[in-house]
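fwd from M.: "can u put these together and see what the complex looks like"

so here's what she sent:
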Amino acid sequence: MLEKTGVPAREQVEAVKPTQERLAKGPVAIVECFQEIPCDPCYTACKREAFLPFEDINDLPQTDFEKCNGCGICIGACPGLAIFIVDESYADHEALIMIPWEFLPVPAEGSIVQGLNREGEAVAEVKVKDVRSAGKNKKTSIITLIVPKEFAHDIRSIKV
Amino acid sequence: MDKAEILVIGSGPAGLKAALSAAEQGAEVTLVERDPFLGGQLVKQTHMFFGSKEQYAAERGFKIAEKLSREVEAHPGIRVLCDTTALGYYDDGVVSLEVKGRFATVKPQSLIMATGAQENTLMFPNCDLPGVYGAGAVQTLMNVHGIIPGKRVAMVGAGNIGVIVSYQLLQAGVEVPAIVEALPHIGAYHVHASKVRRMGVPIYTSHTVLSAHGKDSLEKITMVAIDQDRQPVAGTEQELDVDVLCIAVGLTPLTEILFQAGCKMVYIPELGGHVAMRSDTLETSVPNIFVCGDVGGIEEASAAMVEGSIAGLTAARNFGYGKDSYEDQLAAARRELDSLRSGPVGEKIRSGLKRLSSFGEVTQ
């Protein structure tokens, strides 16, 4: 499916998800990188060593979810824009997600935007909680969204 | 006539690295570039690069161009000639140039070819309508000149270039209603494909463009599903209103000068066309002529940079520069190259290089 449409299969997405127990504890990185390509900036970006060392540069990233505190520095380091932070501990019915954003306009904090799934379909209205730069000279923004909890693992983009 | 110790033709990722590597060993380098500025295709690449730190991973292509160009321009051992096109190679080793509109000649002792590649095209009825562009032209318009090519752009080709340029079009506020790919799978890195998909761009694999339509310029295309034998499936035609069709169906190495120089050339489909046979230090069958980057086989910019280093180091070593450190630096570069090519996405280049070496060895 992924290689035909660009949309990862449900099983692929499930396979890289942390346990429900870990998700409930707070923010954590989810790496939706399913193809072995020569690329390792996530590993070198994380100061907490939450990515296991790459034996080969083509290895898929392996996350130690206990070491990851969901800081989000890896979001702006990933050339594939394939890393997202999910925080299910935010509220009873809402979760926070952090996504990379490289388009204009950059949404305003507090604004309401459409949350899009991996196919680009609008699934829910979401609120922009926070917008920050991924780092000096990075040109990628990291956007924190408040999303209905049931869509925390579906919304991966926005329409402003 | 001018003389040069090492002449590098082309200042993309391979040429910039070749010039720097040779000059750092102490060689005198002349670098010629057709465009008014250095960087080749790097200047149009707004996405972050893959690879590892050694190849500037996670930096954007144009930033890498800026960095390497600054280093090249600041290096006392490198003479830079922009607005300069290499025209031909003569039997006596003379290279003819057009330098800012004037004819000139140079006789280098060593030649490093980093000329890159040209785009492949696609034939279909009305493919010559204004509005049908190559992806390189679209990138040049948008990312060099700041001009959008149109309002609604269909992309042909779901390789890295097609998908990356689609993303850049979206960033420029242009609608992309379809990416059309003849193969049954996406050739681009899947993360690139996912990036455009979640912005709502559908990718039609096993589809092709049947024809283009329009009076004075492109107004519409007809696309169609194709079967395993690449034949159109009747009844699957779809019309799409677009004012631009962008073609990104692969690249072919730019090898004319290598042919003129008498280098042994072989047709290797996996490498994109005719390429020069070469030693493991990238020296062709003509001593002191080297290849690096896409001219030797279509590959990623990260690999082109490492090949540039190997060619530059070896060209300099042939004149006695950097003898002490040569073996170590060569070994490090070769390790980088092997690791970039080692995974599943390196399969095509590995099999192409294997086929190339089956035609015989080049030893100097």
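replying to her w this: The two ends of chain A are 28 Å apart (CA to CA).
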